[in-house]
Design brief:
Elements lengths: L1 H23 L28 E3 L5 E3 L7 E7 L6 H16 L6 E7 L7 H8 L7 E3 L3 H10 L4 E4 L8 E4 L2 E5 L5 E6 L4 H14 L1
Parallel strand pairs: 3-4, 4-5
Antiparallel strand pairs: 1-2, 3-8, 6-7, 8-9
Helix pairs in contact: 2-5
The structure holds nickel (II) ion.
Amino acid sequence: MRRVRWGLYGLVVLAALGWGVLWLRGGDPLLALRGASSGLAVPAGVSVGGPFALVDTQDRPVTDASFAGRWMLVYFGYTFCPDVCPTELQTISNALDKLGPMAAKVVPVFITVDPERDTPKALADYVKLFDDRLVGLTGTPAQVAAAAKAYRVYYAKVTPKDSSTYLMDHSSFAYLMGPDGKFQALFRQGTTAQEMADAIRAKMAGA
Ligand code: NI
């Protein structure tokens, strides 16, 4: 247990270092959003989202254009994630339930940051544990890196000491994208399903 605990401390420190590096490079607008709760906007002039080319759980090519005309709720994570990803994906599923019929206009999208292990088949098995509506996307490491970059997602492979398997340290935000593909809102980790549903409903009403 002790080793596990130190491993977790190590992850926290690495995460902090990662964010620090991004911040120093001026590439992390999300730091400015700490403390806010839900339905966040990003600072003016900062773009979030954009073109991506990945494959779905049937190994079919999918791009951002595949979702044109529909809202997207995008989350980056990985199937081996011990805690954060399952919690956030459950929140997304619950938020869609709270949206009722309006949920039909929103596609929840889970993009892996661990393409090495998250094959289309692995993703297919994983996403259906949470929600039949959830679209799992993976790709080559380069394709995933490009998608993550567009969404300003930080991720890095971390191997705890004395462990034979690695974890992926990653930022955890859900992104609401409009039918035109433009960024609409950002939900930080810990946002409740109700807050998320309310913010999505408000955005849809205003669009
Ligand atoms: Ni995770």
